[in-house]
Design goal:
It contains twelve helices and nine strands. The chain is an alpha/beta fold. It has a seven-stranded mixed beta sheet with strand order 1-8-7-2-5-3-4, with helices on both faces.
């Protein structure tokens, strides 16, 4: 079912209740450690008060340890699964293509299990039509979605909110690669998983950067008919996470190649706990794993083909794609655009100060 998520274009500066704050990281819930939700204004309380109070809830006491056991167990199972096919490939019993297919099938299955284990039981969807995209950008439909396009874009761009976003992408799009931070290679299990997914790692150790590798993959994708559609590349152009209500300024890397992109947006509805990832902190995992369920909505956009001017101006290309995603998904323009952060925890602490201050 196609529906329109268009709305009047909104700037974060007009949000009076977030005036003077870094609204990109305001946690408008009632349970986060750094939350600035309505329950935070009732009375001052000790930082551990919310944690102690939640521990008395029987359902929470059951969900948190159960999910803490389930999620690592599922990841370890997939790790052994990949190792098994790597051994078969090493001794010559299976081909490389068979190993890739097994890894892809297992990835989608495991991601579904992880989502269910974390409380994401299903995701609703809506679709922004080419007509809506033409109205938002004030451009002819033929320029944005030319009828001569034979293959969907290789690059997919999305916002990044929570720790389960990659799993949602895998269930929506199938086996895909990601552009990841180099620091993730330090995690033993995740390093093998991401290498099997042919992920690209951005960091100081990456000689020449990831842009030349992306350009080679784009050429192979459009020139080789046997290039699998499922092996497309997912990029988070914000390069960090937010609270899910705002979209930060995009980095130009994903758009410097001048290739078409396929945007999509992940939106979380919440009241008690904002699923926005703000650091490897026990209170975050406790809040995320103790929720009965998480509500997710995926907004799909038509393929975006850049104009001649956008192909030579990556900043303009990134800005227009961001405008389409923000207005099409009924979000707000964020005010921050900084360096790639290991964790947005600093911004969360700075944004969610006490109201008295």
């Amino acid at each position: 079912t196609q529906s329109t998520w268009g709305s009047q274009f909104k700037e974060s500066s007009i949000m009076s209740h977030h005036s003077g704050r870094q609204a990109d990281y305001i946690l408008a819930d009632s349970r986060s450690k750094y939350a600035y939700g309505p329950f935070k204004d009732i009375q001052p309380r000790h930082p551990v008060f919310g944690l102690v109070k939640n521990c008395f809830l029987g359902i929470v006491c059951m969900l948190f340890p159960l999910r803490c056991l389930l999620v690592p167990s599922i990841l370890c199972f997939y790790y052994v699964y990949l190792r098994f096919f790597l051994v078969l490939y090493g001794i010559g019993l299976i081909s490389s293509s068979t190993r890739e297919k097994a890894a892809g099938f297992g990835l989608v299955f495991i991601c579904n299990l992880l989502l269910i284990s974390c409380g994401v039981y299903k995701a609703s969807r809506s679709y922004v039509t080419p007509q809506d995209a033409s109205r938002i950008l004030n451009r002819p439909i033929e320029d944005i979605c030319p009828p001569t396009a034979d293959r969907p874009p290789y690059i997919l761009v999305s916002n990044h909110v929570s720790i389960v976003d990659p799993c949602l992408v895998a269930t929506e799009l199938g086996f895909s690669s990601f552009v990841c931070k180099e620091s993730l290679l330090k995690i033993p299990i995740f390093s093998l998983l991401m290498q099997q997914m042919h992920c690209l790692f951005a960091g100081k150790r990456t000689k020449g950067g990831v842009i030349p590798v992306i350009q080679k993959r784009i050429q192979a994708y459009y020139q080789r008919e046997d290039f699998p559609l499922e092996a497309r590349l997912v990029i988070y152009p914000e390069a960090t996470t937010t609270n899910g209500d705002y979209m930060l300024a995009f980095h130009d890397g994903a758009f410097s190649c001048g290739a078409p992109v396929q945007p999509f947006v992940l939106k979380y509805s919440y009241k008690n706990f904002c699923p926005g990832w703000w650091g490897t902190d026990l209170p975050y995992f406790f809040g995320f794993f103790s929720q009965l369920y998480h509500t997710v909505h995926v907004v799909h956009f038509p393929p975006y083909h850049p104009s001649a001017e956008e192909k030579t101006n990556a900043s303009l290309y990134a800005s227009n794609v961001r405008k389409l995603m923000v207005e099409g998904a009924n979000m707000y323009l964020g005010s921050l655009c900084g360096e790639i952060q290991e964790s947005p925890l600093k911004f969360v602490r700075d944004a969610n100060v006490k109201k008295s201050q």
